[in-house]
Amino acid sequence: METKQMSVTFDRLLVNIGEDFNPETGTFRCRLPGAYYFSFTVGKFLKKMLSVMLVKNGMEVQAMAYDGYQNQGRKVQSQSVMVSLKPMDSVYLLLQENHHYTIYSNVGPYITFSGCPPPVDAYYDWRRRATIEEPRSAFSVARTRSALGESRGRRERDALTFDVEYVNIGGHFNKTSGHFICHFPGAYYFAFTVGKHPRRAVSVKLMTGRGEVRAVVFDEDMSWRREMQSQSLLLSLKRGDSVWLYSQQDDGYAVYSNQGRYTTFSGFLVYPDVLIHS
Fold it and tell me: Which positions fall inside the C1q domain (predicted)?
């Protein structure tokens, strides 16, 4: 049986630099090639499930926001990912077209969709009378399979690894090891979303250095439902610093994902030290 989806459209436009986004169709059309960062938050209607996909060029699913709990309450789910685009590529949100799935919003609003264009590669320093090349470092990855914890008596904090690579500018992220290594000192933005496995809790930490915990997502609900948790932050990094995600390894914990790519991890350099201290 074919599954139908409908595009999510918007009635309020806050920013539209370049006018590449059409709120009436909900579609962003790329003009300038490069790596674009997209984030979206969607509200879940009471007594309904939630399933919204970020798609590229039709039906290429890049990431998903999902909540399978049909309870009385309203809530929101968020997701973010960086995608490499060519001219005329399109990106938009799709809602599962089924009476079990509904998105909720009001004048609040609960539903938002944002995208950032490629960073500027260079700028002109009038004081030095020279064109300064900016260092670039960015990655965005996803998992298409779950990671189940198991009590093995181990104390090593192995990084969560990934099998889908959207963007890896500079090659500073190793999806096999799950580690990002800083090559350009400065302020970096990191965001991650993880899916909760049925009948398991979820506890994922953003780690640096030798195991310093910088941010956490946590949900100890052991019910059958699948949902997601998101977290983001800015970190000041030095050359050689490492950043990775650690999922609790006890058998009561797990991270859920599938081809819908519930679990994602992104990061990029925002302000290199050369700009901060100039």
Answer: 1-124, 132-276
